[in-house]
Amino acid sequence: MTPFVVGFDLDMTLIDSRAGVHATIRALVEETGVFIDPDVVVERLGPPLELELAAWVPTEQVDPLADRFRELYAQLGIEGTLALPGAAEALDAVRAAAGRTLVVTAKYEPNAWRCLEHTNLTADAVVGWRHGPQKGETLVEHGAIAYVGDTPPDMDAARLAGAVALGVPTGPFSAAELEAAGADVVLASLMDLPAWLEMHLASPAAAPD
Ligand SMILES: [Mg+2]
After folding, report:
1. Cα torsion at 88, 93, 94, 99 (round to 10°)?
2. How do residues 159-184 score in pLDDT, each as one tens digit?
3. DSSP letter string, 127-145
4. Which of 148, 98, 145, 106 is nearest to 124 (CA)?
5. How far is the CA of 60 from the centre of ligand 1 (A)?
6. Is the pTM above the cut of 0.85?
7. Ion ligand 1: residues, CB < 5 A
8. How far is the CA of 115 from the centre of ligand 1 (A)?
9. How many structural domains compose the chain?
């Protein structure tokens, strides 16, 4: 078996982080008095925190609020985090086939590790603070053969890296939207990843151009 790397997005791909983000935003609002609607934030997870905050507060408040969010998240946000169905099995399937698992996420890296630990998910490597094209660069650096994600920028990142773009409609985007965004394959959920991997490794010609 040849070693290979499969990349995974974190939020709404491996984990459902909505409850923790919601609790953290509520605490941030209470502490600072800024107006941010946590219901809106958790329905569009994916972009970097700074980008989300910029939709709600003046530019000069973005960095201090982002720093405070990350501190509060470490205390309040991890607890409610859940593994999505099939996440553990998907990571296990990669390792069972002699592959390595790489989490590439916009999340602050220490908080990404905390979420994985809390949900009992094991990744071989985590690279945080990456979004859009930066995710693609990280996938190239690690030689990932595929990237699994729940948003159109995840599909772009995979294609940029020449990796198979694997969509999962467990986040804000439907299967049709992920297909339109260039997904090579849309799985119903991570439950289907082991079967896809087995097929792909048997016939890697299915890789994109
Ligand atoms: Mg995501």
Report:
1. 130
2. 999 999 999 999 999 999 999 999 99
3. E-S--THHHHHHHHHTTEE
4. 98
5. 26
6. yes
7. 9, 11-12, 46, 150
8. 14
9. 2
